[in-house]
Amino acid sequence: MTIDDEEWAHVVRAVSRLLGWIYTLSWSASFYPQPRLNWKRRSTQGLAIDFPLLNVLGFVCYSISTCCFWFSPTIRQQYAARHPASPEPTVQLNDVAFGVHAVILVTVTYSQFFSRLWRFPNPSLQRATRPVLGILWGSIVGVAGITLVVVFRSGWKDQDPLDWAWIDVLYTLGYVKLIATFVKYIPQAFFNYKRKSTEGWSIWQILFDLTGGVLSVAQLVLDASFGGDWSGITGNPLKLGLANISMAFDVVFITQHFILYRGQDDVSTTPDDEDDSQRPLLSQ
């Protein structure tokens, strides 16, 4: 490698780290507007309970996965064995920081539906819907099942990376996160459509989220292209899929807020609508 190549490598790594920390800050910032809005309004009305519940599920899985890819020598060795052309996982330290921070904030948001904790007047009576509870418990059972397969097929140690291994458990956690990310937006988008309003749903979280998604994909593409092997992207389907799904729904919410329901900020307060807003969003 020539001196010019070394300098270029330093520049690319520096840009990648910069993109990583900026998107981490942007995504991290996206978790604050909603709980702040709930606190300011002293109400969770306008927020579908399925959204924060699936956020808790998804980000717990995401945090476990990224922490293992960053800290575990065993997982990193298994990844290198499966991706010899690009042996370094594309998970960065900022991914770890983002995941741990996200778990804390989404748990706070979900907890705001419990009036005994926050003492909100006229709290929302929403309950998680059966389909979402099915996803929650199905995910737990699925991860536990894959863990048992790995243990019985390969044992606890000295696993063949090309056979069932711990990395497969992490990939399963990643797919749970993808499912949770995709599903969590649907009840909220339908809730906004049903009320013809986005009041109670913070648009700032969406703007921060969209910015983070764009920069996340940019970092992933930069890292993979610099490594000379695009398997760096396919080797991290969680990060790529998460960003693309989030950005697609962000566009939907931006359209709802700024175009479809612009100026229609009042949540209906008629008796029928109040009763209806407390019902689950998906049929039981």
Automatic annotation (TrEMBL):
| Keyword terms of this UniProt record | Lysosome, Membrane, Repeat, Symport, Transmembrane, Transmembrane helix, Transport
Pfam families under this entry?
PQ-loop (PF04193)
Localization, UniProt? Lysosome membrane
Q: Which GO terms describe its cellular component?
A: fungal-type vacuole; vacuolar membrane
Which residue ranges run through the membrane?
14-32, 53-72, 92-111, 132-152, 164-183
How is the protein disposed in the membrane?
A: Multi-pass membrane protein
Q: From the UniProt record, list the reaction(s) this protein catalyses.
A: L-cystine(out) + H(+)(out) = L-cystine(in) + H(+)(in)
Q: Does the keyword Repeat apply?
A: yes
GO MF annotation terms: L-cystine transmembrane transporter activity; symporter activity
Tell me the superkingdom of the source: Eukaryota
- For the keyword Kinase, the answer is no
Q: In which family does this protein belong, per the annotation? A: Belongs to the cystinosin family.
> What name is this protein filed under?
Cystinosin
